[in-house]
Amino acid sequence: MENRTNFRRFFGASLTILGVVVILFALIAFLSNNKPVLGLSVSKGESAAPFIVGMIFLITGVNLVRES
């Protein structure tokens, strides 16, 4: 049972970190004025998709860590 709890904590922490990174990428892409960010050309409207995905990862990861 303890291995399962440790796995949930590790997976939750990984999702949380990934969510924060994706949200930061989306925010930088939003503020870049259509200049390439990390080699990707993302417009202001297109930066909403990574932001939403990052929020889902962040919320899911925090809930996994909190419940374990």
Short note summarizing the structure:
With 68 residues, the protein is mainly α. Helices cover 74% and strands 0% of the residues.
How much helical structure, as a percent, in the residues?
over 70%
Oligomer: single chain
How confident is the prediction overall: mean pLDDT?
A: 89
The structural class is: mainly alpha
Unreliable stretches (pLDDT < 50, length at least 5) are none
* Euclidean distance between termini CA atoms: 11 Å
Please give the number of β-strands. Answer: 0
What order do the helices and strands follow?
Answer: HH
Roughly how many Å is the radius of gyration?
Answer: 15 Å
Strand content: under 5%
Report on the architecture of this protein.
The chain contains two helices and no strands. With 68 residues, the chain is mainly α. Helix 1 (2-31) runs antiparallel to helix 2 (48-67). The longest helix has 30 residues, at 2-31.
List the helices and strands and how they pair.
Blueprint: H1 2-31, H2 48-67
Question: Keyphrases for this structure?
Answer:
single chain, mainly alpha, elongated
